[in-house]
Specification:
By secondary structure, this protein is of the alpha+beta class. The chain contains six helices and 15 strands. Bound molecules: uracil.
């Protein structure tokens, strides 16, 4: 098995975070610094920062959090900013965020130690609809949203067709629900920037059928068995 999948299966980090740990030389296999893509057997001794990784089966944990703004979605931040890990209540095991919400964005975030689920949910092929409530400065019309619906060029690639509709509009601001099926960096903000609009506030309100409702900012709760089964079936 690849070392990054091994670490994800053990609930240490998502595969991407595991790659970062490996590149930083923090992971050893039988005492030798692991390289990206190295293979590992269950009988090998794997350490992270010198600590052996337990070979026992882990218990899977799944949470939904209402991420507040001003918090980064990483396990540790090289700029010393507050991370979602700082918000975990006592008793929550070693979980990591599934995908990212940017620093200024709030809303629905899944945290788990299930590396396979994290991998599937964030894989571009999975195309799960994610809905955001975006508050835009000034007035907008439904017609203004057409370029966003049909595709905006970001980093030289067109964004996929998406849904967007106005929820409320007045002279000061417009609230728009946007549903995208991909996860480019700062995608919603950049789609609005491309049509000359500034996103003042952005919140993810759902991932597929999973809804944020009922959680205050910074709060989290375990996912129900039904919610876990739903996400595993995606
Ligand atoms: N789009 C953004 O602009 N930011 C996010 O965090 C998610 C989607």
């Amino acid at each position: 098995m690849r070392i990054n999948k091994f670490l994800a299966d053990k609930g240490i980090a998502s595969r991407r975070h595991a790659d970062e740990m490996i590149s930083a030389g923090r992971v050893k296999i039988n005492g030798v610094i692991a390289t990206l893509g190295a293979s590992v057997e269950e009988t090998d001794e794997v350490t992270l920062d010198g600590q052996p990784i337990a070979q026992t089966e882990k218990k899977e944990e799944y949470y939904i959090m209402n991420k507040p703004k001003g918090v980064v979605c990483t396990v540790s931040d090289d700029r010393g900013r507050k991370t979602v890990m700082d918000l975990l209540p006592e008793g929550v095991g070693r979980v990591f965020p599934v995908g990212r919400l940017d620093y200024a964005t709030e809303g629905l975030l899944i945290l788990t130690n299930d590396g396979d689920m994290a991998f599937r949910l964030t894989h571009p092929k999975t195309e799960i609809p994610k809905t955001y409530m975006a508050k835009i400065e000034g007035t907008l019309t439904e017609k203004d949203l057409n370029p966003i619906r049909s595709g905006i060029e970001l980093d030289g690639v067109l964004t996929k067709k998406c849904k967007a509709h106005i929820v409320e509009t007045n002279k000061a601001y417009t609230k728009v629900h946007v549903t995208i099926t991909e996860g480019k960096n700062r995608q919603v903000r950049r789609m609005f920037e491309a049509i000359g609009k500034n996103v003042e506030f952005l919140k993810r309100v759902s991932i597929g059928q999973l809804k944020l409702s009922g959680l205050d900012r910074g709060q989290m709760r375990p996912l129900t068995a039904e919610e876990i089964a739903y996400l595993k079936g995606l």
